[in-house]
Design brief:
The protein is α+β, with helices and mostly antiparallel strands. 27% of the residues lie in helices and 33% in strands.
């Protein structure tokens, strides 16, 4: 092996180690977000199934008229707590007002107010719930990055991430290619007025 060949091999090994080390923390964060998204999807599916079961159950006689307008409730800010506004519930064949209340804040989550949806002509209440906090504004346009083609590696372009209440740019990086797989870019989707990240990955 010539001196030039040895130098080239050492350089490539160094690049591989660097790429792996750089990708490690990103992959851990991506996996944690994927788990949280799967948990939220399962919770939403269970809520949908319960509502559908109630509609199919002939014993359920829900309202066919919309609930009254939500009442205005005075409340002050309370450190460490979130105000959960009052809402109507269907009890005993009539709409019954349920007053608002304070609930302890949950870091990384925000409260989604309950709402009423029409299903087969019947109004169904979708209960409030704590959901993962996300930005309400779309991410900026992706930045243009310069990179070089590297044999055996793929360039994963940089993306915007939501950190500390603002958009932060995460530079692109190299990842070792995987035979028979292709890379799916990370993206942000608007779900109910809040942007949720859909992590990229090999598929």
């Amino acid at each position: 092996m010539t001196k030039m060949t040895r130098t080239l091999v050492i350089t490539l090994l160094g690049l591989a180690v660097t790429a792996t080390a750089f990708a490690g923390p990103h992959e851990e964060r991506r996996e944690e977000r994927r788990k949280e998204e799967r948990r939220e999807d399962r919770r939403e599916e269970r809520r949908e199934e319960r509502r559908d079961d109630r509609v199919r159950d002939h014993r359920y006689e829900g309202p066919r008229a919309a609930p009254p307008a939500v009442r205005y409730e005075r409340h002050g800010d309370r450190r460490g707590y979130t105000w959960v506004g009052g809402n109507y519930a269907w009890q005993g064949g009539a709409y019954v007002w349920q007053p608002g209340r304070y609930e302890a804040e949950r870091r990384g989550y925000r409260w989604r107010e309950p709402r009423w949806e029409v299903r087969d002509g019947v109004y169904m209440r979708v209960d409030g719930d704590w959901i993962v906090t996300g930005p309400s504004i779309a991410p900026p346009v992706l930045r243009e990055e310069r990179f070089e083609t590297r044999s055996g590696f793929m360039w994963i372009r940089g993306q915007w991430d939501w950190r500390g209440g603002e958009w932060a740019w995460v530079p692109g990086h190299y990842e070792r290619e995987r035979a028979g797989h292709r890379w799916r870019d990370r993206r942000w989707e608007n779900r109910g007025g809040s942007y949720v990240v859909v992590e990229g990955g090999w598929e």
